[in-house]
């Protein structure tokens, strides 16, 4: 790829342009807002305006409701030999492209799964997509050249390509992105009704939700509307769980001891399912799903409490975090000589912590990463 055009110089479009320009691709910037083009060009993202001849690839980086029309217009004007887009909804956009008579042999749908709380060209970064998934949704009519160009784009942006069918993509992002974004917004909106004291007490959980709720409401309304068929049923299922939780809490607040056991069990069940679901989430930047903790067995003497205090003090001094601690068998009585304390840590922490503890005189052995069944 030698030449490219980016249509839409917002956060995603400008970030793509910065990445391409940084890799030596002559990139042209197109936008209906001249100020955004000027800002993107001033940041080194590319050349303002239309190219003198068709480019190798044009990236359509506009909201989903405008993607098909913008693509049709630029195909008619012969902006590029091949095209891709970055809309976060694929099935509806593809259907609209077909309805408008777009040449879908030269088109590959795309969706880079990266973003920031801020929007616009000032927030753009050349490394925004590094190690993030970038979904491509080729269809049976997609040409080989178009797919290869799209794959090259993903590579130039240092992202990780994932090939899905358009409908499969939409169901996946409805669950992994669109539903959480909507729920975050609805939860953050409760802050409007909170007292100043309550808002000041908001901790990390609410701040994280606030970050998820940031962004352009109009753009997200456009995205959710375009993927309504996939998001709506998920929201209904979530609503049923919320109703179950609300009913359980109402019973628990009622003071009648008879139904409270069942209510607490229902609340625990809902929270447990949340914990189980969380364990399936991939690590940041497309890494593997959460791994079982590593287990370090540390030999302790008969004075369990004193030994445990010293051991945990040495862990604190190492500034490394524990996931859990499992005390020796028979935790209600002092451990016999030769007992062990199991330290559960993330796999990346295991070797550094073992080295530190050995340096402080502890006998440490790393065990297979199967969590013990009993913890304190």
TrEMBL record:
GO molecular function, one term: NAD+ binding
Domain Prephenate/arogenate dehydrogenase intervals: 2-282
GO BP term, pick one: tyrosine biosynthetic process
Keyword Oxidoreductase: yes
Keyword Oxidoreductase included in the entry's annotation: yes
Signal sequence range: none
One Pfam family per UniProt: PDH_C
Record key words, sorted: Oxidoreductase
Gene3D superfamilies listed in its UniProt record: 6-phosphogluconate dehydrogenase C-terminal like domain (1.10.3660.10), NAD(P)-binding Rossmann-like Domain (3.40.50.720)
Family: Belongs to the prephenate/arogenate dehydrogenase family.
NCBIfam families found in the cross-reference section: PRK06545.2-4
Protein name: Prephenate dehydrogenase
């Amino acid at each position: 790829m030698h030449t490219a055009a980016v249509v839409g110089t917002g956060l995603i479009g400008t970030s793509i342009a910065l990445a391409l320009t940084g890799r030596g691709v002559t990139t042209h910037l197109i936008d209906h807002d001249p100020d955004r083009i000027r800002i993107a060009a001033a940041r080194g993202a590319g050349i303002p305006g239309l190219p003198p001849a068709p480019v190798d690839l044009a990236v359509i980086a506009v909201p989903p409701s405008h993607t098909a029309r913008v693509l049709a217009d630029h195909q008619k004007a012969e902006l590029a030999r091949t095209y891709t887009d970055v809309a976060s909804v694929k099935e509806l956009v593809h259907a609209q492209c077909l309805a408008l008579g777009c040449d879908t042999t030269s088109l590959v749908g795309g969706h880079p799964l990266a973003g920031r709380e801020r929007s616009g060209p000032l927030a753009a970064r050349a490394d925004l997509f590094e190690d993030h998934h970038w979904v491509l949704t080729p269809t049976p009519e997609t040409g080989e050249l178009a797919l290869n160009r799209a794959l090259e784009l993903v590579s130039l942006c240092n992202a990780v390509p994932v090939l899905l069918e358009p409908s499969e993509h939409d169901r996946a992002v409805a669950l992994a992105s669109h539903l959480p974004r909507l729920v975050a917004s609805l939860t953050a909106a409760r802050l409007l009704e909170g007292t100043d004291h309550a808002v000041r007490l908001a901790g990390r959980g609410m701040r994280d939700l606030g970050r998820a709720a940031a962004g352009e409401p109009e753009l997200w309304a456009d995205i959710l509307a375009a993927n309504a068929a996939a998001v709506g049923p998920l929201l209904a299922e979530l609503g049923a769980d919320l109703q179950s939780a609300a009913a359980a809490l109402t019973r628990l607040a009622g003071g009648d001891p008879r139904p409270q056991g069942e209510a607490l069990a229902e609340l625990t069940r809902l929270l447990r399912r949340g914990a189980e679901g969380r364990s399936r989430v991939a690590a940041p930047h497309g890494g593997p799903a959460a791994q079982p903790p590593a287990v370090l067995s540390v030999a302790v003497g008969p004075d369990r409490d004193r030994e445990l205090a010293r051991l945990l003090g040495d862990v604190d001094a190492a500034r490394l975090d524990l996931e859990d601690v499992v005390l020796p068998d028979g935790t209600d009585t002092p451990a016999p000589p030769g007992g062990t304390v199991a330290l559960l840590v993330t796999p990346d922490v295991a070797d550094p912590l073992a080295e530190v503890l050995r340096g402080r005189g502890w006998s440490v052995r790393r065990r297979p990463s199967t969590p013990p069944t009993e913890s304190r």
